[in-house]
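Re: the 104-residue chain
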Amino acid sequence: MNLRVKLHRQPDETDIKKVKEFRTSNESKLSEKQEKSFIELITDLEKFYRPTSAASLKVYINQVASKPDLTKNLKTTLNITLQLLYQFLNFLKWSVILLQKSKK
């Protein structure tokens, strides 16, 4: 799959290396604007795929805590997400059960 297409459809951490390699191998062909775009893309990918620690989230937690409406919306979103996850896990559980029964 073309790297550009992959980045738009299914980006993952391994793409950082691929983008860097592409940039290096095509460096002489890139305009200044394209070079800046590649640097920005690589920086964004590295930020997105950087491991997250609880300590790094503390800044955001404090910001959220000071905004009651945002806190309420986040709690609502989290509850809905957990309900959907629970339903999905039940679906998977029943799918496995039915699959096992169909093999007997």
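The chain has a mean pLDDT of 88.
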